[in-house]
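Trying the structure run again after the queue cleared.
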Amino acid sequence: MRALTPTFLFPYSSLPSPPPNPLRMACNSRQQLISFDELDTSSDLSPAEHTVWEAARQATNHSYAPYSGFHVGAALLLADGTLFQGTNQENAAYPSGLCAERTALFGLAAARPGHPAIVGMAVAARPADGDFGPAFPCGACRQVMLESETRQGQSIPLLLPSRNGTVLRFRSLSALMPFNFSAEDLPTV
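Done. Tokens:
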């Protein structure tokens, strides 16, 4: 297992300095850090992590992806040991489809109201005729994932396959969405 130093989400230091803006009096540059572990292979996972990792990979077999050919599976491990899976479901009217992460989370909430806490999550993706590759949740999925974590009141660890074949382990879904919209941002009624 190789632990990485947190990387900058927005590496401002590599961007050119903006031209002076006469309408702005001051600008404070900030950096947001994300923290994760990078494991060399899935054999470095704990037994529980390996279970949810393999369940996400298996879920890709049930994906409906006739348009993109990109099969995505998500798996949730509950505190009672139950696994719950979701897959991407495409539609000819593209915006009507849904990602694997959301089908898993929404499906669990609908099928098991008051379900045990989610103690692990994994996402896997592969082309129709190929090997597994990187799978990074879209912005909408990240927002839903974070709200699920907030609703249950405890962190949900997440496993994602990276571009270079390693496994990324996030200890909390909040690492993926540092600038999110939440109930606190809604006006009080």
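Residues 139-152 form the longest helix (14 residues). Worth checking whether this holds up in the mutant runs.
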